[in-house]
Amino acid sequence: MTDKHDIIQREDLEKPETHRVEHTTHGQVVEVSPEKADPAFRQFGDERIEVTEEDNKRILRRTDLFILPLLAWVYWLQILDKTILGYAATFGLKTDAHLVGNQYSTIGSLNAIAQLAWQPFSSYLLVRVKPRHLMPVIVSCWGIACCGIAASTSFGGLAANRFLLGLFEAACLPLFSILTAVWYRRAEQPLRVAIWYGTNGMGTIMASVFAYGFGSIKNPAIHHYQILFLFCGLMTVLTGPLIYWRLDNSISEARFLTPEDRHKGVERLRANNTGTAATNTYKWYQVKEALLEIQTYLFFGMTLLLNVGASVTTVFGPLVLQGLGYDKYRTSLLNMPFGALQMLIIGAASYCTYHFRNKSVTICVFILPVIAGLAMLWALPRDNQGLLLFAYYLLAFLFGANPLIISWLSANTAGSTKRSISISGYNGAAAAGNIIGPLLFTDDDSPLYHKGLKATLIIFIAMFACVILQVVNFMILNRLKERERVKNGKPAKIHDASMEKKYTQKAEEKMDESKLESSTTGAHLGDNAFLDLTDRENDEFVYVY
User: Fold this and answer.
1) What confidence score (pLDDT) does residue 329 get?
2) Which of 11, 115, 503, 544 has the highest CB neighbour number within 10 Å of its CB?
3) What sign results for the dihedral spanned by CA atoms 523, 528, 534, 535?
4) Cβ atoms of residues 414 and 406 within 8 Å
């Protein structure tokens, strides 16, 4: 934990330079500038406003209407642009582009390699560049790269454009995770992540439809895979201007809300203790804190292990089905129910998390069918196609875990820079998993892929250890927070209103001196919410699991 961070008080907003303020946890005086606090604090200060359940529902409904469809559409495009490589392979990509040996596997991994390599730069851009400017640029650029794949007829061209595709997509998932965290209460986040992440399934369905449809076109002047990539790339490029027109940077700047509702929107997010802004000053001490914490590496570990398995379905799924004896047209169609199953599973997992308010148990429960499916694919003879297809469909349960890990990480990470580093680390782990996954499935092992399936089975079993260790870690951190609050003159137990299904403005959140608990430094409960403190710095932070 650092001994310096930026805290300003409402009266300090009128001062033009730096300010002497008291550290709420350590009682130290530091010099800070107002620009380094959350924009919501600079706009509204410590002023609190009453938010009724009617207000809450209205603001949530408007946020869902204007923000959520945009996130879902763009994430679907990203999944589509990545997934169609597998379908292009079933329609002759290897032959048409003269790929030999493990060149196809290499192309499949380059997207993830680029994402992994670009994460440090991506994490900086996420903090420094406003979402309304960053998202249109990266979306348009990866659309151009997708069109570049369509123009490629050799390994070199395909590899270069696939690498660029991954580079520009690197900030997509971290940015979407951050936007979900700063627009929604912690109880609302799993379902919203599920909605945009659930387009994984729709991406699989529509990739199957496009591959089947474009695969029926007979034109000697252009290959089937080129039509597929060109169509998807042009859709993505045209989305860029739409994003700039529709997206707002934060709830305090939301054009679709009245000025009063912006203030109420900020107030309803107070209990999150994670702020309302996606961007701020890049704070190096928060980078250090993120890199030295156990929770960062446990999230990295479970994400890495999970996405090794996910790569089996996204890159080699169609090839595995083809290896079971189906032709290329039936292979495309058989992936459609797999995509629908992904959507149902993601929705079910997120609903269970919302209803039972427990992410770790839900993750473990949804990974069990994945282990069963991998064991069946590894052990069963290849003459029972129906049972093997059922086993392959069981792998769709892994998609229920990824959005839960995203929302779990976001809910337990505060501080704009630290959140960017942690979520970029998640994406880096996912990219590493997508690199390792295809390399486990070599041409020498086709079409049965016994060695790759056995290795993936062991990896998923190991993932359980990471989930259990993370739960133990958060339990210990919550106990330490209780001791810290008592030391600071606050109650040991704080009710986490951010996890309530129904919004209620608790007594300790209102500016009623007769009901407020004060710390030894004079800070009231809830005053730390918009100071861009990390979860370790803020003694009022409650870890959820």
Assistant:
1) 65
2) 115
3) positive
4) no
CA distance 511 to 525: 10
Counted residue by residue, the chain has a size of 545
Measured CA to CA in angstroms, residue 370 lies from 377, 439, 538 at distances of 11, 20, 38
Residues 6+ apart with CB under 8 A from 245: none
Averaged pLDDT for residues 475-504:
86
CA distance 457 to 454: 5
Give the tens place of pLDDT for each residue, 36-92.
677 777 788 777 888 999 999 999 999 999 999 999 999 999 988 877 887 777 777
Confidence band of 508 (pLDDT split at 50, 70, 90):
very low
Within 10 angstroms of residue 389's Cβ, the number of other Cβ atoms is: 17
91-105, pLDDT tens digit by residue?
Answer: 778 888 888 887 887
The pTM of the full predicted model, rounded to 2 decimals, is 0.81
Between CA 187 and CA 504 the distance in angstroms is 12
Q: Enumerate helices (H) and strands (E) in the chain, giving the number of each.
A: 21, 2
What distance in Å separates the CA atoms of residue 125 and residue 138, rounded to the nearest whole number? Answer: 11
401-411 and 189-197 helices, crossing angle to 10°:
140
Element (H, E) at 31: strand 29-32
- Which tokens is 155 given? 């390994």
**316-332 mean pLDDT:** 63
Question: What is the pLDDT, as a whole number, of residue 61?
Answer: 95
In angstroms, the Cα distances linking 53 to 56, 256, 432 are 5, 19, 43
Burial grade of 242 (CB within 10 A; 0-12, 13-18, 19 or more): middle
d(CA 390, CA 372): 11
Amino acid identity of residue 67, one-letter, is I
At 233, list the tokens: 């790339």
Between the alpha carbon of residue 509 and those of residues 9, 44, 225, 321, 536, the distances in Å are 17, 16, 57, 55, 21
d(CA 269, CA 512): 19
Phi/psi of residue 435, nearest 5 degrees? -75, -45
Single-letter amino acid code for the residue at 11: E
HEC readout, 387-432 = HHHHHHHHHHHHHHHHHHHHHHHHHCCCCHHHHHHHHHHHHHHHHH
In order of 30, 41, 89, 282, 291, the CA distances from 6 in angstroms are: 8, 12, 53, 12, 20
Q: Which amino acid is at 351?
A: Y
Full DSSP string of 101-134: TTHHHHHHHHHHHHHHHHHHHHHHHHHHS-HHHH
Cα–Cα distance for residue pair 270/224, rounded to 1 Å: 52
Q: 103-116 pLDDT, tens per residue?
A: 887 887 788 889 88
